[in-house]
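Cross-check.
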Amino acid sequence: MNSNQFFKSNLTSTTEHCPEEKFIERKDKLQLYKNDSNVRNLCFEWDDGRKAFFNYAYLVSIMLTLEESYNLMAITFTSDTVALKGYNFPVLFKLLLTHAPRIIPVTNFRYVNNPGKDDIFVTEVSVKKN
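Predicted model, tokenized:
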């Protein structure tokens, strides 16, 4: 018999479901990538159920503006610009530098009460085609 007939693969089935908790770590409601990966996406989740994601490979620039009562951030991808409004964006800005955020949820403004120094709250997200 040919030795190729006794070949046994060490690969696991691609149909097996791996729990999502294995790949992400939670920091408040913002979800971050736990390990390095070749492909990274940034997903925005609105409180009405809408979602949009963009690949970090197409990230062009990020501009942070600190207002007195809130923060603004413009995240420019090659096809779209995502405008964020919320609180404590200097922390989010540093996380975006390393492509760490995976999912950024939108929090309704009425649920934001005295954000702490590490609490990131995104209250508005708008997407505009470039």
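Residues 45 and 51 are 5 Å apart (CA to CA). The chain has one domain: 38-129. Passed to J.P. for a second look.
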